[in-house]
C-alpha cells in the first residue's frame, strides 16, 4: 500500500463510524491488475492499474441508498457516507427489505490486500517475444491478451460483519493466423497466477491448429454432428446461468416459468445425469463464499450482503433444483435462498475424455474451437444465436481432415443438454465470449451434439 | 443552457498533478506523455412492477499517464490525488514502456495535432439529471409502470441510467482540455403471457438514449406518453399474432431498428484498428480492409454514411478526444463506396495520408481513468434522402414484406459479414399497405448484400437519432456510448427466419 493511503479496514471502520443511518454496509474493493495486448506480432497496448472502490449502503426505515466511488482517503469516504445517508433519508421503501446479516468475522480480516504487478508476466513476456520472432519466420501472425488481477474485498456492517475475500483472476487468449489471413486458430484459458501458462506451448498449439487447416472445405448451412470443446460449452452454460433468475421465472418469463404460474422446481428440464452447480470451494475456481453486492436487482439484494454462499446445485440429475434467488424472491417462490455464485461447473455422469477423444469416435462431423457474439433471441425457449470462431474442423473417420467455413448457429443451451450424445470429462475452461470481461471461473466437459443447428454460413475467416 | 463545467470537478488538483506527472515523464526522455484525470458519475435506478428495485450511485475518479518511450507505449493509472502518486504513476508508465519495448516491433509515431491551449467544452443539456432528487425519478418511473399495469399487463420493468462524465487532459506538447458530458437512457418494458397459447413475451418503448439532460423526459421532444399508452395493446397484439412464414421478404426498416444494424455492420466495420487486426483476438477484424478504400461497393448508390463527433445530442459527441485531437465530421460511405475510417493519432500517422490528410479524426477514447484510450466509435449515421419518401411512401413500394420496428436481439460475426437481428415488433406488408403484427421474426444477411439491396432511403420525416449506451470493445473491456442517426429505408429480398422453428430440433 502507498504510505499516504489508509488501509481498507480503516476505510471500512471510518465509514461505519461516520454513518448516521439506522444501519450501514460498507464494501471496499482494493485491486491491482496488469495486462499485455498484442497484434500482428507486436505489442499494441499494456497497462498497470490500481484502484480502491468503496460502496456505502445506508439503511433508514424501509429504504436504503447505495453510493459507490473510487476512494483513497478518509475524506473521500466521508463524502460517500454523507451522500448515502442523505439519499437513504429520502429513499422510497425497498421491496427487498429484510434484516441485515449479522455476526461473522473472517479469520484473515486484518490482512492487507493482495497485489499483482507487471512482473507477473516476466517469463511469459520473454517467451512471447521469442514466439513473435518464430511466428514471423514461419509467416504466421499472433494476436492476444493476458490479464492478471488481484482484488480484495472487505465487507463490514453495523451488524458486526467483517468479511474479507482475496480473489486472483487471470486469463490468456491467443489467436494465430497465417500470413495471408485465410485461417485462424485460438487457444485460451484461465489461471490464478500465470505460473502455469507457457507462451511457447501456446504458440506451438496454434501452429498445430493452423496445420489442421491446410485443407479448406466449404460446407453449407445445416445440422451437423458436432463436438463442442469445453470453451464452447462454457460460453453456452454461462448464458444459461445468467438467464436463471427466480424473479423472472416467477413473473412467467423464460423456460423455467410454469405455464399458468409458478416455477418448474423439481421438473426434469434436461436429460438425467446432467449436473450444473456452483461451489465457492471448487479448485481452481475458488470464489467469494459470501454475498457482496453494491446494488439490488432482479437477482441480488443489498440486504443479503454477507449471506454465506455455499455449494449450490442448479440442475440436479437433469431436474431444476434452484434458480438465482435473493431472500425476497426465495420467500415469494417458497424455496431456500440461493444467491448467485461466481463460478459454474457442468458435470455429466459417465463423462470421460477430452474433445479430441470425442473426435476419435466421430465418423462424420465437425469440431468447434469456440463461439462468439452470443445473444438471446427468444427468452421463453432460451434460444441463443452466435457464431463459430477461429477454427471449425472437418472430422472424418475419427480424424481431423481440414478446416471448414464459419457458421451462425441458433440453439438453446437447455435443448443441447437434452440432445447431446456424448460428454467428456469436466475440466477448467474459459468462455471466449464471457470469460474475459465477466465470468472466467468455469469447468465444463466437451459435448457431442448429433444435430447442432448451423443456421447460415459466415464468410468471416 | 447550463454550459459550465461542474465546479466540484474544477476544484480537483488536476493541473498540479498533470504538471508533476508530465515533468517526471520528461526526465526519462519520452517522445510523448499525456495525463488524463477523469471523474465519471453514474446513477442507475430500476423498478419492478412500479416498486423501487435498486438505486445505485457510482463515481469513478482517478488519473492515468501514458508515455511513448523509444517507440513503445507505457500506461499506468492511480486513484490517490497526490503529488507522490502522480510521480509513482508516471514512473510506472515508463517502466511498463521499458517492458513493452522488448515486444514492440513497430515504433509508435503520433500524427501531428495543433496545440489546444486550455480549452473547455460542455455538452448540450439543460438540467443535470444527477442533480434531480432520486424521489422524483422513482415517482416518474413508478407512474409510467402503473399506467402500464393498470392497462392489464402482467409485469413491467423500468429503469433510468444517467451519466455525468468529466475529463481533463494535458500533454507535453501543451494541449490542455477540460470537458463535461451528460447523457441518459430511460427504459420501460412490459411482460405478458397468453394463457390460451402459453406464450410469454415482452415489448419495450423505443425511446433512444441521448446526450441531453433531465429535460428529455418532459420537454415534449419525445412522445413518452403516447408510446406508453400504446404499449399494452401492442404487446397483446404481438402475443396473439401469427408466427412469420420463413422465406425472403422486402423489408421497410424503421430508424429505431436500422440504427443498431448501422452500428454493427458499418460503425464497427470502419474502425481502422479492427481493419488492421488490432482487435483480431477479441472484438474481431473487418471485411472492409484498407486496400479497398475508394473501391469497395459497400452498398447501393443512395447510401451516404457519415462519421461525426459534433452532432449536438450525439452520445459520442465531444470537443476533443483523449489524445487532444479536436473532433470532426467526415464521410465513411459516399454514393455507396467506402470513403473513410475512424482513426487515432498512431494510425493516422502510419496510414492516414489518404484518409484524413495524415491527421487523426479524433476517435481515441478511454471509458474511465483506469483504462487506456483506444479507437472508439463516432456517431456513425446514415443520411436521409432530402427528397425521400415518408413511411407510407416506403411501404407503398412493397408487394410482400415486413415493417421492422425497434431493436432487440443482435449478433454479427467477427469480420462483420453475417448478422442476425430481431426487433420489438414486425408488421406484415401486403400490396403496399401495412397489416397486423407477425411474430418470431429475425432477419439474417451478409453486410454488403444487405446494404446493396437498399433500394429507397427514406426522407427527413423518418430520421431519428438513436443510439446505444453499452458498446463494448478492447481488452480490458471498455464500454462506450454512441448515437446513430438513421432514416427508415426499403431493402429488397432479405432472408427472414422464424425463431421458434429455428429452436426446434
Q: Beta-strand level of the residues of chain B, as a percent range?
A: 35-45%
How many domains of chain B, as an integer?
2
Overall pLDDT confidence of chain A: 96
Number of strands of chain A: 22
**N- to C-terminal distance of chain A:** 46 Å
Radius of gyration of chain A: 24 Å
User: Greatest interface and its residue counts?
Assistant: A-B, 111 and 95 residues
- General form of chain A: globular
Determine the CATH superfamily of the largest domain in chain A.
Answer: PmbA/TldD superfamily
Oligomer, anyone?
heterodimer
Rounded mean pLDDT of chain B is 96
List the helices and strands and how they pair.
The complex is a heterodimer of chains A (461) and B (505).
Chain A lengths: L7 H11 L4 E17 L2 E19 L2 E8 L3 H16 L32 H16 L2 E18 L4 E17 L5 E8 L7 H14 L3 E2 L4 E7 L1 H13 L3 H5 L23 E5 L33 E5 L2 E2 L6 H7 L10 E5 L6 H6 L3 E4 L2 E9 L4 E7 L2 E5 L2 E6 L1 E6 L1 H7 L2 E2 L3 E3 L12 E3 L2 E12 L3
Parallel strand pairs in A: 7-17, 8-13, 12-21
Antiparallel strand pairs in A: 1-2, 1-4, 2-3, 4-5, 5-6, 8-22, 9-10, 9-12, 10-11, 13-16, 14-15, 15-18, 16-17, 18-22, 19-22, 20-21
Chain B lengths: L6 H4 L3 H14 L4 E17 L2 E19 L2 E7 L4 H19 L17 E4 L11 H17 L4 E17 L4 E19 L4 E6 L19 H17 L6 E7 L1 H13 L4 H4 L29 E4 L20 E6 L2 E2 L6 H7 L1 H4 L7 E2 L8 E2 L3 E4 L8 H6 L3 E13 L5 E13 L2 E6 L2 E6 H6 L1 E4 L6 E10 L4 E9 L2 E10 H4 L3
Parallel strand pairs in B: 4-6, 8-15
Antiparallel strand pairs in B: 1-2, 1-5, 2-3, 5-6, 6-7, 8-22, 9-10, 9-14, 10-11, 12-13, 15-16, 16-17, 16-18, 18-22, 19-22, 20-21
Helix pairs in contact in B: 2-3
Amino acid at each position: 500500500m502507498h504510505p499516504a493511503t489508509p488501509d481498507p479496514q480503516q476505510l471500512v471502520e471510518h465509514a461505519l463510524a461516520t454513518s448516521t443511518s439506522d444501519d450501514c454496509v460498507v464494501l471496499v474493493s482494493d485491486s491491482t491488475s496488469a495486462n499485455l495486448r498484442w497484434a500482428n506480432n507486436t505489442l499494441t497496448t499494456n497497462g498497470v492499474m490500481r484502484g480502491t472502490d468503496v460502496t456505502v449502503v445506508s439503511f433508514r426505515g424501509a429504504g436504503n441508498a447505495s453510493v459507490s466511488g473510487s476512494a483513497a482517503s478518509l475524506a473521500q469516504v466521508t463524502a460517500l457516507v454523507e451522500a448515502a445517508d442523505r439519499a437513504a433519508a429520502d429513499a422510497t421503501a425497498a421491496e427487498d427489505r429484510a434484516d441485515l446479516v449479522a455476526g461473522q468475522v473472517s479469520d484473515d480480516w486484518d490482512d492487507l490486500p493482495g497485489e499483482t504487478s507487471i512482473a507477473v508476466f516476466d517469463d511469459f513476456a520473454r517467451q512471447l517475444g521469442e514466439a513473435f520472432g518464430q511466428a514471423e519466420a514461419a509467416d504466421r501472425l499472433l494476436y492476444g491478451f493476458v490479464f492478471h488481477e488481484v482484488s480484495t474485498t472487505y465487507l463490514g456492517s453495523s451488524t458486526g460483519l467483517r468479511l474479507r475475500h482475496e480473489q486472483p483472476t487471470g486469463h490468456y487468449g491467443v489467436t494465430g493466423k497465417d500470413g495471408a489471413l485465410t485461417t485462424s486458430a485460438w487457444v485460451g484459458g484461465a489461471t490464478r497466477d500465470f505460473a502455469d501458462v507457457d507462451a511457447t506451448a501456446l504458440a506451438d498449439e496454434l501452429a498445430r491448429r493452423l496445420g489442421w487447416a491446410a485443407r479448406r472445405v466449404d460446407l453449407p448451412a445445416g445440422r451437423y454432428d458436432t463436438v463442442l470443446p469445453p470453451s464452447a460449452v462454457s460460453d453456452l452454460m454461462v448464458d444459461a446461468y445468467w438467464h436463471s433468475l427466480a424473479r423472472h421465472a416467477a413473473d412467467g418469463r423464460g423456460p423455467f416459468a410454469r405455464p399458468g404460474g409458478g416455477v418448474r422446481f423439481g421438473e426434469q428440464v434436461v436429460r438425467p445425469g446432467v449436473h450444473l452447480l456452483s461451489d465457492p470451494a471448487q479448485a481452481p475456481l475458488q470464489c467469494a463464499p459470501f454475498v457482496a453486492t453494491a446494488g439490488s436487482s432482479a437477482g441480488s439484494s443489498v440486504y443479503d450482503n454477507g449471506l454465506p454462499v455455499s455449494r449450490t446445485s442448479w440442475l440436479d440429475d437433469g431436474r431444476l433444483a434452484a434458480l438465482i434467488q435473493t431472500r425476497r424472491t426465495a420467500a415469494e417462490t417458497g424455496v431456500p435462498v440461493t444467491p448467485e455464485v461466481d463460478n459454474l461447473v457442468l458435470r455429466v455422469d459417465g463423462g470421460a475424455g477430452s474433445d479430441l477423444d470425442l473426435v476419435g469416435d466421430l465418423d462424420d462431423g465437425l469440431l468447434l474451437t469456440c463461439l462468439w457474439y452470443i445473444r438471446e433471441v427468444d427468452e421463453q425457449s432460451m434460444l441463443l444465436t452466435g457464431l463459430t470462431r477461429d477454427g471449425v474442423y472437418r472430422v472424418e473417420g475419427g480424424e481431423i481432415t481440414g478446416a471448414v467455413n464459419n457458421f451462425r448457429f441458433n440453439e438453446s443451451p437447455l435443448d443441447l443438454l437434452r440432445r447431446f450424445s456424448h460428454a467428456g470429462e469436466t475440466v477448467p475452461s474459459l468462455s471466449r465470449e464471457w470469460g474475459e470481461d465477466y465470468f472466467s471461473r468455469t469447468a465444463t466437459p466437451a459435448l457431442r451434439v448429433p444435430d447442432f443447428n448451423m443456421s447460415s454460413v459466415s464468410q468471416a475467416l | 443552457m447550463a454550459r459550465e463545467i461542474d465546479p466540484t470537478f474544477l476544484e480537483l488538483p488536476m493541473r498540479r498533478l498533470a504538471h508533476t506527472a508530465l515533468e517526471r515523464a520528461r526526465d526519462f526522455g519520452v517522445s510523448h506523455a499525456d495525463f488524463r484525470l477523469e471523474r465519471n458519475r453514474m446513477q442507475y435506478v430500476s423498478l419492478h412492477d412500479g416498486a423501487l428495485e435498486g438505486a445505485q450511485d457510482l463515481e469513478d475518479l482517478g488519473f492515468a499517464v501514458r508515455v511513448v518511450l523509444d517507440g513503445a507505449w507505457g500506461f499506468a493509472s492511480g486513484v490517490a490525488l497526490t503529488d507522490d502518486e502522480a510521480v509513482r504513476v508516471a514512473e510506472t508508465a515508463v517502466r511498463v514502456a521499458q517492458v513493452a519495448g522488448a515486444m514492440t516491433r513497430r515504433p509508435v509515431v503520433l500524427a501531428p495535432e495543433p496545440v489546444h491551449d486550455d480549452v473547455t467544452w460542455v455538452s448540450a443539456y439543460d438540467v443535470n439529471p444527477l442533480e434531480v432528487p432520486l424521489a422524483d425519478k422513482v415517482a416518474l418511473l413508478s407512474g409510467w409502470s402503473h399506467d402500464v399495469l393498470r392497462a392489464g399487463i402482467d409485469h413491467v420493468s423500468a429503469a433510468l441510467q444517467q451519466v455525468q462524465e468529466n475529463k481533463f487532459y494535458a500533454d507535453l506538447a501543451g494541449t490542455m482540455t477540460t470537458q463535461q458530458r451528460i447523457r441518459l437512457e430511460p427504459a420501460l418494458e412490459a411482460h405478458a403471457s397468453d394463457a390460451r397459447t402459453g406464450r410469454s413475451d415482452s415489448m419495450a418503448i423505443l425511446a433512444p438514449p441521448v446526450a441531453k439532460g433531465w429535460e428529455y423526459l418532459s420537454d415534449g421532444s419525445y412522445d413518452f406518453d403516447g408510446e406508453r399508452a400504446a404499449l399494452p395493446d401492442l404487446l397483446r397484439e404481438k402475443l396473439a399474432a401469427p408466427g412469420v412464414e420463413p422465406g425472403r421478404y422486402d423489408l421497410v426498416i424503421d430508424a429505431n431498428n436500422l440504427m443498431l444494424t448501422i452500428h454493427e455492420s458499418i460503425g464497427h466495420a470502419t474502425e481502422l484498428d479492427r481493419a488492421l487486426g488490432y482487435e483480431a483476438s477479441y472484438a474481431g477484424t473487418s471485411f472492409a480492409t484498407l486496400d479497398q478504400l475508394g473501391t469497395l461497393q459497400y452498398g447501393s448508390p443512395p447510401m451516404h454514411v457519415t462519421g461525426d463527433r459534433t452532432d449536438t445530442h450525439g452520445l459520442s459527441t465531444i470537443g476533443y478526444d483523449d489524445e487532444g485531437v479536436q473532433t470532426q465530421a467526415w464521410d465513411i460511405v459516399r454514393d455507396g463506396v467506402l470513403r473513410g475510417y475512424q482513426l487515432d493519432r498512431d494510425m493516422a500517422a502510419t496510414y492516414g495520408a489518404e484518409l484524413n490528410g495524415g491527421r487523426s479524426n479524433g476517435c481515441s477514447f478511454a471509458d474511465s481513468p483506469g483504462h487506456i484510450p483506444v479507437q472508439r466509435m463516432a456517431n456513425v449515421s446514415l443520411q436521409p434522402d432530402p427528397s425521400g419518401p415518408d413511411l407510407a411512401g416506403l411501404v407503398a413500394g412493397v408487394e410482400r414484406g415486413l415493417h421492422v420496428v425497434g431493436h432487440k436481439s443482435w449478433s454479427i460475426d467477427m469480420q462483420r459479414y453475417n448478422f442476425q437481428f430481431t426487433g420489438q415488433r414486425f408488421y406484415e406488408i401486403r400490396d403496399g399497405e401495412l397489416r397486423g403484427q407477425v411474430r418470431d421474426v429475425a432477419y439474417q444477411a451478409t453486410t454488403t448484400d444487405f446494404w446493396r439491396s437498399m433500394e429507397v432511403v427514406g426522407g427527413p420525416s423518418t430520421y431519428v437519432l438513436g443510439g446505444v449506451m453499452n458498446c463494448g470493445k478492447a481488452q480490458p473491456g471498455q464500454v462506450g456510448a454512441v448515437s446513430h442517426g438513421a432514416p427508415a429505408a426499403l431493402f429488397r429480398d432479405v432472408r427472414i427466419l422464424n425463431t421458434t422453428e429455428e429452436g426446434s430440433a
